[in-house]
């Protein structure tokens, strides 16, 4: 079975449209004239076929080229879109990395603030948490400012919150002094007795005994003399013991 191309079919149709009318008038020409007319017709048909084919081919090439241009433009648009997405992702990644870095730096700073610090308390090196340090410093600031009532409350809260703190003995001692400054000798004695009971090895213990003796004297308690004698006996080399000796008249 014969197959016709698009150009061949067009040419055949064109030839048929011309050929059929000629066949109807074939009797009007003689053989030579008919042969010549047929040859001219064939030449014209061939020329028209070639021209038509050229036009079809040209149109096809242009369409193909146009399709390629369109595809190329679409591809460039997709590439531009992908590049934009890549830039957005790269920017997001950069921002995320920066936030993570800032987070870790901030976290490290926060952790460092929570790390124990080495401090010197009454000639001894100790590790103190930042929270303890702030609490103790705040309470002592109140004491130094002369706000003994507020200082007493702050020191009481400190010793309850940080009973094992290296500042606990000092806080308890100054708590007694805060009560004494308010002329509450009974509370002052009770506070200093806690120092002697729980922190007997503390450098503040001799001073606590001396303060107890002072309160007992103000209360006209005869136990003051014995307290001074015990102070000299238990802490003979302390400055408080020297003061106790002076109060006892050198005895």
Overview of this protein structure:
- The chain has 251 residues and is mainly alpha-helical.
- The protein is 78% helix and 4% strand.
- It has nine helices and two strands, in the order H-H-E-E-H-H-H-H-H-H-H.
- It has helices spanning 6-24, 31-114, 130-144, 148-161, 168-181, 185-198, 205-218, 223-234, 239-247, and strands at residues 117-121, 124-128.
- Strands 1-2 form a two-stranded antiparallel sheet.
- Strand 1 and strand 2 form a beta hairpin.
- Helix 7 packs antiparallel against helix 8 and helix 7 (205-218) packs parallel to helix 9.
- It is rod-shaped, with a radius of gyration of 56 Å.
What is the gist of this entry?
This protein has 9 helices and 2 strands, in the order H-H-E-E-H-H-H-H-H-H-H.
Unreliable stretches (pLDDT < 50, length at least 5) are 1-30
**Main sheet strand line-up:** 1-2
Distance between the termini: 146 Å
What's the order of the H and E elements?
Answer: HHEEHHHHHHH
Shape: rod-shaped
Q: What multimeric state do the chains show?
A: single chain
User: Into which percent range does the helicity of residues fall?
Assistant: over 70%
Structural class: mainly alpha
Mean pLDDT across residues: 78
Strand content: under 5%
- State the total count of DSSP E strands: 2
Q: Roughly how many Å is the radius of gyration?
A: 56 Å
Please describe the biggest sheet, giving its number of strands, its sense, and whether it closes into a barrel.
Answer: 2 strands, antiparallel
Count of alpha/pi helices: 9
């Amino acid at each position: 079975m014969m197959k016709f191309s698009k150009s061949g079919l067009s040419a055949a149709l064109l030839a048929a449209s011309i050929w059929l009318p000629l066949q109807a008038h074939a009797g009007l020409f003689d053989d030579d004239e008919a042969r010549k007319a047929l040859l001219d017709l064939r030449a014209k048909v061939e020329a028209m076929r070639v021209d038509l084919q050229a036009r079809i081919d040209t149109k096809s090439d242009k369409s193909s080229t146009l399709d390629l241009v369109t595809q190329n433009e679409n591809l460039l648009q997709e590439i531009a879109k992908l590049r934009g997405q890549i830039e957005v992702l790269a920017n997001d990644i950069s921002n995320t990395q920066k936030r993570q870095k800032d987070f870790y730096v901030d976290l490290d700073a926060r952790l460092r603030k929570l790390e124990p610090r080495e401090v010197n308390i009454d000639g001894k090196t100790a590790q103190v948490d930042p929270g303890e340090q702030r609490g103790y410093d705040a309470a002592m600031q109140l004491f130094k400012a002369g706000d003994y009532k507020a200082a007493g409350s702050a020191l009481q809260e400190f010793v309850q919150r940080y009973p094992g703190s290296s500042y606990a003995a000092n806080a308890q001692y100054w708590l007694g002094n805060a009560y004494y400054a308010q002329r509450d000798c009974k509370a002052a004695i009770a506070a200093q007795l806690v120092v002697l009971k729980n922190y007997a090895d503390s450098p503040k213990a001799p001073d606590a005994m001396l303060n107890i003796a002072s309160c007992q004297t103000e209360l006209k308690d005869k136990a003051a003399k014995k307290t001074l004698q015990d102070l000299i006996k238990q802490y003979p080399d302390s400055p408080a013991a020297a003061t106790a000796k002076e109060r006892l008249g050198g005895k």
